[in-house]
Amino acid sequence: MALAAAASAREILTRLHDVMAKRLAAQSKLNAVVDIIGTALDSEVCSIYLLREGVLELFATRGLSQDAVHVTKLALGEGLVGTIAANVETLNLAEAATHPDFAYRPETGEDRFHSFAGVPIIRRERAVGVLAVQHVEPRRYADVEIEALQTVAMVLSELIANAGLIDAAGAASTRPQATGAVRTHGFKLVDGMAQGLAVFHQPRITIEHTVAEDIEAERHRVYAAFDKMREQIERMASQAEFGVGGEHDEVLQTYKMFAYDEGWSRRINEAIDSGLTAEAAIERVQQRTRQRMREIDDPLLRDRMHDLEDLSNRLLRIVSGQLGTAAQLGLRQDSILIARNLGPAELLEYDRRRLKGVILEEGSLTAHVTIVARAMGVPVLGRVRNVRQIIAEGDMLLLDVGEESLLVRPTNAMQEAFSAKLALSQKRRAAFAQLKDQPPETKDGHRLTLMVNAGLRDDVSALDLTGADGIGLFRTEFQFLVSATLPQREAQRRLYKDVLDVAGDRPVTFRTVDIGGDKALPYLNHDEEGNEENPAMGWRALRLALDRDGLMKAQARALLDAAAGRTLNIMFPMVSEPWEFEEARALFEAQRAWLGSRGRKLPTDIRYGAMLEVPALAEVLDLLLPRLDFLSIGTNDLTQFLFAADRAHPKLALRYDWLSPSILRFVKRVADQAHAAGVPVGVCGEMGGRPLEAMALIGLGIDRLSITPAAVGPVKAMIRSLDRSAIQAMMEAELAAPRLPLRETLSAWAAEHGVELA
Length: 758
Known about the structure:
There is one protein chain. Helices cover 45% and strands 16% of the residues. It has three domains: 2-171, GAF domain (Beta-Lactamase); 182-207 and 214-418, Phosphohistidine domain (Glucose Oxidase, domain 1); 446-711, TIM Barrel (Alpha-Beta Barrel), CATH 3.20.20.60. With 758 residues, it is an alpha/beta fold. The radius of gyration is 30 Å and the shape is elongated.
């Protein structure tokens, strides 16, 4: 099929090359183009729509009424053609009229044509037109035909741009539309504040020539570029400042895996076979990758696609000989980097002294670049839209990731306010740092346990920086998420032992892998479970681990080996019923017996705990508590399950309050039951890391919190200014007869009683 696609596209491109070389008017060339494509694909209709003055205008057609040329116009998003342009997507329909966006235009005479296929004509990452074909008989166009259309659309992009037929906006002006101060927002990836000048990660690379004169010469150029790119990646990996042997090294190994991926280089070669230049072939495959990314629901696979796109950009710069990234040109002053997305190696190229922050048009919490940026201590704001429309190179930027805010070209007053907040933030951090060696003890003498959440080896350093009592939640799945393949048992053992060594005599609670759902791994074959409609409540966490007991046995042995001679704290996630805990505990005990029978040194003690995230477990807690050494309430998942609200849904993210009586009454009931059974109970999750919410939890009887390292200082300051008996009496009265909104009631109480809420 690939050969057929290449031959079909090459035949069309050869004829198009001849048309483009002739001294004809642009309209005459387009008229010839639709005839060539229609004939080659045996399609009764071939039409070209171009974006002019913000609407899509029918510029040339074979098969539709010629009277409709320059008359039929569609807005972006209107009809099938408008949908293709608006979404920059391909449509392939056996029956066009069945599509919900179908719009009939009588002047075209298209009512007798049933099938429809259309591809966007892309220029500088945006659609500037649409190439469409139609046929009388209902049929889906073959993949080879769609491939040919997409390749031809790339060549058309060059033709229409050179002829000046597209909007000036299609040329992607280098100046933003706005000139004054602008505030925009994004998604918090790595917390922090930063000030600096805007620097775009890479200049736009404009492909001037798309049709190859000599295919073998183009192939040689790509081979040479691949060799150079791989050398660069190897050099960067060997010079990385941190992460040797750790998760960051695994991130780079995954990145290198893509650089040597034969499938990727083969697809580029196939595009060259179709008649494209080296640059156009790389861009053609990159466009296909972007389209696939839009169709992928799995966030982890999307992140892997971002790594591949990062390498495509690098390869394109090498083969074109155009200027490199801003990192290669060098940062001359404090800068905030702007990119659509970044790969980990790209970020590592930047001067740490000058790089103050990163803004991404895309990005996610599990992306490789986020993991590396967190280790570098660089604030990152993701999902900032239309950056090139609002930001110009060299603009002053004020980044406040905690507020999910970005200020562009701030006024003097804005800059002064930001500087004051930054100074206050630094002062607060200094004050919190002074509390490092002070115990989290309330004014009435009650000592609480304040622990941190971690997931990477480098996170363990937060114990010394914050003075936390230990690690209340070590997310073992992070090692799985940043690996290209299933981490071997020895790699797991080394990580767990390193964490325990750094923690010393401070306890570490390891949560067994919580993968699946929105943390799917491409190297685990999920079969039919892989496309779950509601992954948060699907085949994940303990459910997956018990089904794939080989995975859990390997992790159990790694943990038991790593904790030899020490106490091992194990916590099972997403326990729904007591038998699940019993089965998981039995699996660990069987591995302990197996290792012991072979004379291996074992942990001196194993403490088993469960996470209460599924509300059903609360109804059978009396059956489980006698078997538990400790219980941890996971407020993130618990909240979305109690309210039947996806916490990632933008319309629901702020709708349900952690200080709702529903949540607080539930937590109190669980805490009371655990205390009565003599089982330590704590909270891990974002709720415990917010001073006001943490104050409420203490009022419910919670005396163990596991939170992010950044939250330890503010929460400890709150604890040391709080009278525990007073807040418990207040919460008892409020939950009996809540005065809504409870958040305002609690805030007023804290102010009245001098509780410090940073």
